[in-house]
Amino acid sequence: MKKQIVKKTNKNKSARVISGSGIANILATFNNTIITITDMQGNVVCWGSCGNSGFKGARKSTPYAATIASENVGKKALEKGIREVSVYIKGPGMGRIPSVKALKAAGLNILSITDKTATPHNGCRPRKRRRV
């Protein structure tokens, strides 16, 4: 006799009330682009990435993959009630600008775009000089 597997569903999860504005965080690395949309308090509403959208390997790092991933996340956010977002971009990847354009194309109103990429300030201490 096999045991039946019963999935438990959380009724309160989809019943959350979300205001119309939020924050879109875009992390564009050389290998992937990750888009997270949160409400104004920082609670994650929806997220997505190029790998989550079906791209694998070297195709994850392309601007086209970032566009598809951002469109998917934008549509999810519209369903949850987010209408306008402030965009924070981080990282040097190729999916930076296409992902912002795709969020706009998905129907979200973009209030501001801020670049949060970390810049080095002199870095670590160098190694000692080699003596030969």
Q: What would your notes on this structure say?
A:
The protein is α/β, with parallel strands linked by helices and 132 residues long. It has one domain: Ribosomal protein S11/S14 (Nucleotidyltransferase, domain 5). 21% of the residues lie in helices and 27% in strands. The chain is built from two helices and five strands. A five-stranded mixed sheet has the order 3-2-1-4-5, covered by helices on one side. α2 links the parallel β4 (84-90) and β5. α1 runs parallel beside α2. The radius of gyration is 19 Å and the shape is elongated. The termini are far apart. It comes from candidate division WWE3 bacterium CG23_combo_of_CG06-09_8_20_14_all_40_14. Part of the 30S ribosomal subunit. Interacts with proteins S7 and S18. Binds to IF-3. Belongs to the universal ribosomal protein uS11 family. GO terms for molecular function: rRNA binding; structural constituent of ribosome. Located on the platform of the 30S subunit, it bridges several disparate RNA helices of the 16S rRNA. Forms part of the Shine-Dalgarno cleft in the 70S ribosome.
